[in-house]
Amino acid sequence: MAESHNEFLSSDLTQNLKIIEEKMKQTADLKRRKLTFHGEAIILLYLDTMTDKESIELHIIGPINKQESESIENTLGTKQFSIMTTYKDISSSIAEGNTILLTENCNIAYSIATLSDEKRAVNESLNEKVTMGAHDSFVESATTNISLLRKRLRTPEFKVEYQTYGTDTNVEVAICYLESKVDQTVLHSIKSRLEKIKNDDLINSRQIQEALEDYPYSPFPQSLRTERPDRAVFNLLNGNTVIFLEHEPSAVITPISFYSFLRSPEDYNSRWFVNFFYYSLRLLAFILSVTLPAFYIAVNAYHSAILPVSTFYTLKLSVMNVPFHPFVEAIMMQIVLELLKEASVRLPSAVAQTIGTVGAIVIGSAIVQTNFISNTMVVVIAVTAVSSFVIPIGEMSTSMRLMSFPLIFLAAIFGFIGIAFGLMVYTTHLVKLTSAGKAYVEAPKIFQSFLNTQPKNGKGEDTNAHE
Amino acid sequence: MLTNKNLFFLIIQAQIGIGILGLPYILYNDVQQDGWMSLLIAGVLAQGIIIILVALSRTSPKETFYELNLRLLGNFLGKIVSICYVLYFISFSMLLMILVTDVINTWILHQTPRWAIILMLLIATSYIAKEQLLTISRSFLFFSFWFIVLIFLLILVYPQDIHFGRLQPIGSKSFTEIIKASPDAFVSLIGFELILFIMPLIKNPKKSLMVLTFANLFTLMLYIFLFITCVISFSGVQFSLIQEPLLYLFRGLSFEFVESIDIIFLSFWIIPISTTLVIQLFNASLGVQTLFSIQRKKSVYLLSGLLLCLGLLPISLTVKESLSSIMIYLNIIFVFIFPALLLIIAKLKGIKG
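^ Those are the sequences you sent over. The predicted structure of the assembly is below.
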């Protein structure tokens, strides 16, 4: 381009305007506004679609027209602004929603923050509900989210760092932590991992997670995505780091331990034995949702001998007229269940209820009456599904349900032995995983964890974690 | 770096495995109710060997056994010894695989071909063995849950039809007979030789002797408890007929929802059995790594490929019998005599740890 040797603003206003508009690719929503200030022409440039017009009117055009002061700096005194001299800065500043002020015979421009702040109100969390405790949830704005945390953590130790990633999207990423609690080596590794984000198109939390996770191909999430400020605060107090991505209504928490996925913020808000009961229940749900279908298939296909006679007859009567191998039955039923679940998520809530009815009554009872799938299998798969839905974090719940498939397969080939081998591999895999360099699974400290006392820094969940 | 806890679970998992199924049968048919004395003697022997092994690995705590014997015996002789050790671990794993497939074929999956079980076993074990030792030991901690199940089930046997009188007369056998039976018991205690290969990875080498002693004690107590439970539950005639008394013990148990605990128990007992194989694979792969400078991960895959090929060979009963009787002597040579000789050489060369 002709301007390559001339990237700084010149004193020629029309020339400047031409180059800036060229830089902005002549986009249709770039508006210009012409004013005069003490006899000099002033041009305002802004993106119509991103700026807050009321604020421009009130804080820029108004004072300029009144001509209260001699200099532009003083006139703009009430508004935050910065001075720019290159075309590149100016064009990216416009793209960020700022207003550019150019004056005649002057080779500097003023960039004034006028980004319109359209926010969704803070609503109740949809995916992580609790019966007791706070009901607010994160929204699509990182600043609002951080303010939700700040309101709970009124301490100067709470530190926020902003970074911008993605050359195409220029998304702001906020790293929040408590300076006194966070492990500096872990924090350092998190930051260096974020530096490595290569995606030009950073837009999802998943991309952040991928950069943070040590084993991105593992089926288990190694960083926790939550919608709940109270969960984020609890983790901050434990010395973990919370990462926000602008325009994502969730926080990514890392490092995290596997057991955190089984906890709901409600736990810490209830009596110790209630807390203990529900935690144990979720542990049980985890085990059930992974192993129950496999167990049923192993018993049905290989080891009916382990059942007492009466139970044996009940089971055999139920499967007698079913033409399929239990493995096929289980896979069919799992797929039907996933279909129903997926359909009800995608549909508007009024229609989703219909899906529930169709699923429960039409498919559920009809499939048994037609002898495609046995009664016991329906019960088993239903219990499995319900157990997996108990898990408070959706990401983990889905992983668990899907992890039962390989076990089903192994049980169909080797019976109990297949399950034993499968569980062996699962355990080793889980033990191998690390989250930001900290161990993902430790031996369950069930008795320590149900007490409401928060673990002290460094003595917390993962004492043995550094590998 | 391994903590004491990690080391403890590594050792007990390496020790306890398939031996537990047949141990009471073998001991009872040698020395009847005095088998527990043989066990004790074997345990004392094992303790003596542990002291030797720890002393040897302390002479240079930063080296594994393979590096140590390369340094002490020179390049040529050292390499031969290392190769012998790798071969020993391979044959140990081989025997283990044969025993496991036999038990599975007789008790649970009667029709499943041997290769399928071996393939399954090798996939699972090599998946674990290729990991770092710390990961292995931490997963072993989870697998140790089955020891609790075992002890619990053994306690459940007590309300059944048992006779403590079967333990008497104590000491009816001569002392030489009891000693003669102890090598059979000693086979089941093998596994602590692992310490030779992991000394550089231990956080607190000074405490290792104590940890090993506790691990050995745990295993020994578990075996004695098991033996006594079997003796008081079965009569002499029964004992001569049943090769896996432990499983028959559990066959007698039944609950409202579950019968034949033996099948469930054996199926999941595969996990502690596999851990023994994992340790053998680990030891062998470390040797291959040192000898041929191949990555340990790759050498685990290589070794499991080799074991799979060996497992595909048709193995007759006589081969199996002779292999297991040879193993008894090989164990003593490789776990006791070699390290003891090496310790003497190390002391003569005046190398201090």
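Residues 270-432 of chain A form one domain. The longest strand of chain A covers residues 30-37.

Shout if you want it in another format.
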